[in-house]
Design a protein that fits this description.
Number of strands: 11
CATH architecture of the largest domain: 3-Layer(aba) Sandwich
CATH topology of the largest domain: Rossmann fold
Helix content: 40-55%
Order of helices and strands: EHEHEHHHEHEHEHEHEHEHHEHHHEH
Distance between the termini: 11 Å
Radius of gyration: 20 Å
Bound molecules: pyridoxal-5'-phosphate
């Protein structure tokens, strides 16, 4: 199995770089943030300050958004599903989302007006839990399909939200097709966190929902007297999350946008392969990486458009990089905040550490201009969403280099 980190600069010629981020402008994304703020469960997730780690590895600062605190669900994903479901219901009710908050949407009157709706989706865990949680609050039904090899704990967490959920015999991309067929045959609505030709509106709303996290981080950095990070490292499965955060930063900072690096599992590195080929590429097979949230082989068409126009580099990482990141964040240098970060949450921290400390990656460090003046923003997108696997990795040292 490949043990090395691979990377490529983004050499793709920019084409529609302004148009492709228009839907992520500050005004649009602020609507999503206001929607989330109307939830009883809403709080701004912490921005961990890892100054001692930064100093130790030769950087000016590391700031990490800890999404394990999001709505009590241990991952960022609910931001997307909930906003898309809110937007969908607003359109059904012929109302503006800006005037339709959580209290009203979850009221018996709105339920009566809407009747019964079934939301269908596929997930490695986090997205499905967010959709199930939102459907539960709306008193509606969710049907969730998971790829082969999915974690039983993650399945149980979805079922605990009242959803009908099962683990299939296929990979993530095929599970998406099963969810779509189910919705088509049962008059349901697909709430999928990826786009393809002909299915773009809901994923657009999902990406706007993820924008809440980006807006929060900008405010938090400003409170720390940091006008802008110099670099952002973003993990990617299909690239909705990365595209959303990249798009928000690119629309707010324009030509002064931070250098953004897209990070994938080497068993599901469709964006890295696409960047190398200069056109969209798929990866197939079972993709049995520990980074379950990143085990997706078919890029989000809208997300890819954003990333190919705006991101600086694409990186493909073996599992040990994520495992190392989990250990570094879980056992911080004294004085830094501790972060319980899961496999898909920690890969960017693991990568940053390796690039800064391993001479084999000196070229990458130089090309990306990572040095003592750099202030790097990371997103730990999940906590210990499978606590047993978390302990195996952090306590017992599973998946070392
Ligand atoms: C924890 C976590 N991080 C990152 C991602 C990647 O998001 P995307 O598929 O939008 O690239 C996922 C996707 O499920 C996830 O669960």
């Amino acid at each position: 199995m490949e043990k090395n980190i691979k990377w490529t600069k983004n050499n793709i010629k920019r084409t529609n770089y302004k148009e492709c981020i228009e839907f992520l402008n500050e005004g649009e994304v602020s609507k999503a943030k206001s929607f989330h703020e109307s939830f009883d469960q809403y709080t701004v997730t912490p921005l961990a300050d890892l100054s001692n780690l930064a100093n130790h590895i030769g950087l000016g600062g590391i700031y990490l958004k800890d999404e394990s605190y999001r709505f009590g669900l241990n991952a960022f994903k609910v931001l997307g599903g909930s906003y898309a479901m809110g937007k969908y219901l607003a359109s059904k009710l012929n109302r503006d989302i800006s005037k339709l908050g959580y209290k009203e949407l979850t009221s018996p009157e709105v339920k009566k007006e809407l009747g019964d709706i079934t939301f269908a989706t596929a997930t490695d865990g986090n997205h499905g839990r967010g959709v199930a949680w939102t459907a539960n609050k709306l008193n509606q039904k969710a049907v969730v399909y998971m790829p082969k090899g999915s974690s039983i704990t993650r399945l149980e967490n979805i079922i605990a939200e009242g959803a009908e959920a099962s683990i299939t015999e296929v990979n993530y991309d095929d599970a998406v097709r099963i969810a779509t067929d189910y919705a088509n045959e049962n008059n349901g609505v697909v709430i999928q966190d990826t786009a393809w030709e002909g299915y773009e509106e809901i994923p657009t709303w999902i990406m706007q929902g993820y924008g809440t996290m980006a807006l929060e981080s900008i405010e938090q950095l400003k409170n720390n007297k940091i006008d802008r990070p110099t670099h952002i490292f973003l993990q990617a499965g299909v690239g909705s999350l990365a595209g959303a955060v990249q798009g928000v930063f690119a629309s707010i900072y324009g030509d002064d946008c931070p250098t953004t690096v897209i990070v994938e599992s080497n068993l599901a590195d469709c964006l890295y392969q696409s960047a190398k080929a200069g056109k969209m590429k798929y990866v197939g097979g079972e993709m049995q990486t520990i980074m379950a949230g990143l085990a997706c082989g078919e890029p989000n068409t809208i997300g890819w458009e954003v990333l190919k126009n705006h991101s600086a580099a694409f990186v493909s990482c073996p599992d040990w990089v994520a495992a190392n990141g989990m250990r570094i964040l879980g056992c911080p240098i004294k004085g830094d905040n501790q972060v319980v970060s899961g496999e898909s949450g920690a890969v960017t921290a693991g990568l940053l550490f390796e690039v800064m400390t391993n001479p084999e990656y000196a070229q990458m460090k130089e090309d990306l201009k990572l040095d003592e003046n750099s202030k790097v923003l990371l997103f730990s997108t999940e906590g210990d969403t499978d606590p047993e696997v978390y302990k195996e990795i952090v306590w017992q040292g599973a998946h070392t280099k």
